[in-house]
């Protein structure tokens, strides 16, 4: 579990807007890491994973890391059905 991310129990008890903000920060951080981007580089939430330059392997690594940190499974179908970071965040917050 990341030290800067709340435990799953804490996350589930946060108000919706705070939970969404934390999930968005986590998702963006994971994608930035996978793409070797700095925190200062602009990350587009509405661009497809593969258009950003991710490979299937790197996307799988992001998925596994998010699952571990969020304490929940993200199905491959959900991942490919929500092919941008913004859509994935919406799905994870639903």
From TrEMBL:
Domain of life: Bacteria
InterPro entries: ACP-like_sf, PKS_PP-bd, PP-bd_ACP
Annotated ranges, domain Carrier: 18-94
Alphabetized UniProt keyword annotations: Phosphopantetheine, Phosphoprotein
Family matches, as Pfam families: PP-binding (PF00550)
Protein name in the entry: Carrier domain-containing protein
